[in-house]
Amino acid sequence: MKKLFVLLAVVALFASCGKGDRGMVTGERGKKWHPEKPYGMTLVPGGAFIMGKSDDDIAATRNAPTKTVTVPSYYMDETEITNAEYRQFVYWTRDSLFRTNLAIMADENGALPGDDGIGEFAFLDSEGVEGEELTPWEQYVQDNYVGLGPTGYEGRKLNHDIDLIWDTEDMPDEFYAEVYDNMIIPFEEAYNGERTIDTEKIIFTYTSLDVNAAARNRDESKSRKDFIEQVPVKIYPDTTVWIRDFNYSYNEPMHNDYFYHEAYSDYPVVGVNWNQAKAFCQWRTLYHNAYRKQRNVERVNEYRLPTEAEWEYAARGGLEGATYPWGGPYAKNDRGCFLANFKPLRGDYAADQALYTVEADAYEPNEYNLYNMAGNVSEWVNSSYEAGAYEHMSSMSPVVNDASNKRKGVRGGSWKDVSYFLQVGTRDYEYQDSARSYIGFRTVQSYMGTDVTLNAATN
């Protein structure tokens, strides 16, 4: 009997330890991982390149001396983020705010799910309703990304199965109408009898973690939370830039229609500052990973703004020492056609077949299939502007981003710039809280793994 007990104990030991590994260290595997190129992006194979001005420093800025640096592989948007793509972000945030306010109104008036009127939008986990507990993921999204700030209703489950009603003729009751009324501008601000959404209320709160400061922290009294900041951002583009950027110029049509109208959906979004671009990146990460979470597959890397080195490496398209993304040194092709949207011939804006911006996929892409890396709109990068940055930055995946430095890099030149700013080595900046009619952005996502590099791709 004793021998039988020992035998059973040994069997139990192997059964508890085993997944068929016979007691060997075989490694713990994660969820299924299926790498895929994100929609609208292209893979930029990592490698080394000479960063800095390829030609004489005619402006005598002395801020971009040549330096050999190496960047890992990453995905990059083929085009600048368009009005349609940014509207998706704005409308998602708007609808989240509206739906949450409706649920709060229902709760305050004792309406339950299944009741008519405002009750259709009540919290699904309302008292007396069974089986509608909030999952940890849903609570995380609710707590951090709705954008309302503290409400006392954090951790409640919203009803996403019923469509929001925007037509005032179809609103179910006075409670719904009251919530809607609080979301739009007051009567005295209406123009041509139209009351639109109050853009000041469309706020997205993104989370910022200063990894560099946390990694170098030697103060034992500080923990991870001391390096995390919640940043509320009014995310609606500033359409008034079309007026404020120009004196004595009639640009009201662009102010009125550029972001809203379907005619401009495929044009690059402008009027967004650096913080708004950062907020978009974090929303895009959240949106993508929420879908992958439902499919029980591994998360993807965060979407983010490119570093200055990543932007220039991608803009060069594999051409070493080129002046422009297409090579150079001229801004015209052999048929005399301009190769980008900028300000040619001392102000003849129409010479390049464009007055303001053009579609994000206009003109020919560079060798990495990236459109408008020169001209159209300048692009925010995730680097602070320091004139001497190239002198002290690392040669491996370099970035200089000082949180106290509010000057952030913009690269590529725009529709209102002369050709000098279109050169891939030219550096420029704008203050991070400033929005312009000529600055947009595109995003990148780090490639997971190291097997894709320019050297490997060409061997």
UniProtKB/TrEMBL annotation:
<dbReference type="GO" id="GO:0120147">
    <property type="term" value="F:formylglycine-generating oxidase activity"/>
</dbReference>
<dbReference type="InterPro" id="IPR016187">
    <property type="entry name" value="CTDL_fold"/>
</dbReference>
<feature type="domain" description="Sulfatase-modifying factor enzyme-like">
    <location>
        <begin position="40"/>
        <end position="444"/>
    </location>
</feature>
<dbReference type="Pfam" id="PF03781">
    <property type="entry name" value="FGE-sulfatase"/>
</dbReference>
<dbReference type="InterPro" id="IPR051043">
    <property type="entry name" value="Sulfatase_Mod_Factor_Kinase"/>
</dbReference>
<dbReference type="InterPro" id="IPR005532">
    <property type="entry name" value="SUMF_dom"/>
</dbReference>
<dbReference type="InterPro" id="IPR019866">
    <property type="entry name" value="Glid_motil-assoc_lipo_GldK"/>
</dbReference>
<protein>
    <submittedName>
        <fullName>Protein involved in gliding motility GldK</fullName>
    </submittedName>
</protein>
<dbReference type="InterPro" id="IPR042095">
    <property type="entry name" value="SUMF_sf"/>
</dbReference>
